[in-house]
Write a structure and sequence with these properties.
With 507 residues, this protein is of the alpha/beta class. The protein has three domains: 193 residues, Methylglyoxal synthase-like domain (Rossmann fold), CATH 3.40.50.1380; 121 residues, 3-Layer(aba) Sandwich (Cytidine Deaminase, domain 2); 124 residues, Cytidine Deaminase, domain 2, CATH 3.40.140. A six-stranded mixed β-sheet has the order 10-15-14-13-11-12, with helices on both faces. Strands 18-23-22-21-19-20 form a six-stranded mixed β-sheet, with helices on both faces. A five-stranded parallel β-sheet has the order 4-3-2-5-6, sandwiched between helices. It is elongated. It starts with a strand and ends in an 8-residue tail after the last strand.
Length: 507
């Protein structure tokens, strides 16, 4: 039989008070006494719920601008006293210490303060001392104490609290303890990384989301991170591992079109299969769909602007896994939500991590994000013929797509519309041939189209094939020792070519 404790007293000291109300209400309903600090105590009192201030318990005020509140023997003695230990019991009675069975803490937002660009003084003040000490004490003494160490654990705690009427078995308490030390260690890691200015690797999140399955249905999968800080999920089924990868690719792509006119993209297996920029978002969607309507089936849709009713009606004719937009008009949301399994996400902010991490062998590979967005200032004009203004716009458009397409890749575009791409090929020539065949299969005329490559051409074969297909302008990084061969051919055939100086491999 699992050892049960019945909670009688809870200590609450939290920074984030969201979702705290139902917990304190349930604690009161169950007759569990509440002890609290400063702002948390004031919040609870405003709810009309009885609470004892820590200062009344310790007979000692909060001092040093709130730096010292809970660091007192009457608090930590109440948490750390051992069950069935006669000496501890004697001291508890002698010093009139209240036993504390539940500790609820939400730490100061240290990393959020760092990321906000705050001053060093503000950052230092967000290094939690009392909160960390409470977490470690409560987690250490899980035989007698339930430690709720983060606001993301509130729902789990509340469910158990309600279900078991304030009783917690040893395995439940141990589970909360393990999570508490995970949070504590991560918090210290973040502070260490900041103060030492190290580019340390952090494979950690105190927020775990179980996925429908992993890459395949027989694999389990989890996401560690704050999904809700980036998206508001309006409807749809639980997300899978592949959904997350596609969503990540969609967000990375659309970020590069953040300040462009209405742009709509469709992705499949992390690659762009359709994208277009137009004056109206419904026109952008229709153009994007025309790029490859076959691959679009079951794809991920993303817009850089609000989705209106007209666009929603068009989308509703397509089977798609996920729709992402910054905003939805009221009627458009109703229309899109009719498909119950379709995942509808509203983008709150584009918040990409500074580093990319992937497992490799028995360790990890870490690199910086590819944050370069090719623009006109990057262009080096290397041929006699210069691209027109419209061609330059198309070249930049195509280059952005190539950046977010699996290498080796070739992208063909015209009038800010993806005509086709060759993706993930071992040969750049094969990538180009694939793109040309695909464009022709969908009825696109490549005359006056532009071509983008994610890396340089070591030989002139790609530009030779492109010229025969009707390509009039090319964008590529440059940097091959045989660049002149491609340049000379372009000059001979009156094709314009520009170098960016930036390679965008994506493996």
């Amino acid at each position: 039989m699992l050892e049960i404790i019945k909670a009688k007293t809870a200590l609450i000291s939290v920074y984030n008070k969201d979702r705290l109300k139902p917990i304190v209400e349930k604690l009161t309903d169950l007759g569990i006494n509440i002890i609290s600090t400063g702002g948390t105590a004031l919040y609870i009192k405003k709810l009309g719920i009885d609470v004892m201030n820590v200062e009344d318990l310790t007979s000692y005020p909060s001092i040093l601008g709130g730096r010292v509140k809970t660091l007192h023997p009457k608090i930590f003695g109440g948490i750390l006293n051992r069950k069935n230990n006669r000496d501890d019991e004697d001291e508890i009675l002698k010093y009139q210490i209240h036993k504390i069975n539940i500790v609820i803490v939400d730490l100061y937002p240290f990393q959020e303060t760092v990321d906000s660009g705050a001053s060093i003084n503000d950052i230092i003040e967000k290094i939690d001392i009392g909160g960390i000490a409470l977490i470690r004490a409560a987690a250490k003494n899980y035989e007698s104490v339930v430690c709720v160490s983060n606001s993301n654990m509130y729902s789990t705690f509340l469910n158990l609290l309600s279900k078991n009427k304030g009783k917690f078995n040893i395995e439940e308490r141990k589970g909360f303890s393990a999570k508490a030390f995970e949070i504590s260690s991560s918090y210290d890691f973040l502070i260490n990384s900041y103060l030492s200015n190290k580019n340390s690797l952090k494979i950690y999140s105190n927020q775990e989301l179980k996925l429908r399955y992993g890459e395949n249905p027989h694999q389990t999968g989890f996401f560690y991170g704050n999904f809700d800080s980036i998206f508001k999920k309006h409807s749809g089924k639980d997300l899978s591992y592949n959904n997350f990868l596609d969503i990540d690719s969609a967000i990375n792509l659309i970020k590069d079109f953040e300040n462009e006119p209405p742009t709509f993209a469709i992705l499949k297996h992390n690659n762009t299969c359709g994208i277009a920029t137009r004056n109206q978002i419904e026109d952008a969607y229709e153009a994007a769909l025309s790029s490859d309507p076959i691959s679009a089936f079951g794809g991920i849709l993303v817009s850089n602007t609000a989705i209106n009713e007209k666009t929603a009606k068009l989308i509703n004719n397509l089977f798609c896994e996920v729709v992402i937009a910054k905003k939805y008009e009221k009627e458009s949301l109703k229309i899109l939500s009719k498909k119950k399994k379709r995942i509808i996400l509203e983008l709150k902010k584009i918040d990409k991590p500074k580093k990319i991490v992937r497992t490799c062998l028995n360790g990890f590979l870490v690199q910086e994000q590819d944050n370069i967005i090719d623009n006109e200032n990057h262009l080096k004009f290397v041929t006699k013929k210069l691209p027109s203004k419209n061609e330059i716009q198309d070249l930049i458009f195509a280059s952005k797509i190539a950046k977010h397409t699996k290498s080796n890749t070739i992208v063909l575009a015209k009038n800010k519309h993806l005509l086709s791409s060759g993706t993930g090929q071992t040969s750049r020539v094969d990538a180009l041939k694939q793109a040309i065949i695909k464009a022709k299969d969908f009825g696109f005329n490549l005359k006056n189209a532009v071509m983008a490559s994610d890396a340089f051409f070591p030989f002139p074969d790609c530009v030779e094939i492109a010229e025969k297909a009707g390509i009039v302008s090319i964008i590529q990084p440059g940097g091959s020792i045989k660049d002149e061969l491609s340049i000379n051919f372009c000059n001979k055939k009156n094709i314009s070519m520009v170098f960016t100086g930036h390679r965008h491999f994506k493996h």
